[in-house]
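Side project, low priority. Logging it here so it doesn't get lost.
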Amino acid sequence: MASENTILRRRDIVRIAGGGAALLLPGLSACGDEDERKIKGLKMKVQDAYGAKDFHKGLDVAQKGLTLARKTIGDKAPDTLYFAQAISENQISLHNFSGAVRALKQEIALRSDAGQSEKKLQSRRTRLILFAEQTGDKATSIDQTVIIAKSIDMGPGKDPQPTYQPMPDYPPDLYRAKTEGDVDIAFNLDADGTPTGARVKSSTPPNVFDSAALDAFRKWRFTPFIENGEPVASTGHHFTIAFRMNRGQ
């Protein structure tokens, strides 16, 4: 999938380094002096709270900032999108994944209305799919996967792209033995991107990682083929899962 690339400039993205955290701020949009001061103050509070890992406070301030920004400078302003993203990131940091699903839906809708391209939205959609799957919200996961499939013109001649791929557990005895391998899986796809009929096509070493690979793979989701604007089932796909010591997969 595409790397993180939002409508905000690079320095706007949440960054964590050296054990610290910071929500870096974009420049302010044009608005009245008093509103500008309020928005600037709220953004500084969001940054300070995030740096202190006080995510409850950061969430509360970001929500107040979003309300003010939408009222005074509109839904499409970069500062509005900043607060929307801050809400998402604080919900994620709080491990409130249901809240993260709601926040990411709101953030993506605002970004889309502001004219952000689907290519740039893709990384936010895949994060939403991740948390939707983890909370059992299959409808949201399928909806976002289909949107991605349409945006990349998914169809014959293209390989389905995974939008949700929980990695298999590395069998402990094989990890201790430093055994590596590959499992090539053949599968079909339902219209919602769910793999069906998954089977091992080939593996190296044979019959070593097969079960671990299949157990995880059956939980994956892929971009389905799009035909006449609608997702359709397809057949004859394959995907290789590599088990490597350096990345535990």
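Brief comment: The chain is about 45% helix and 20% strand.
Revisit when time allows.
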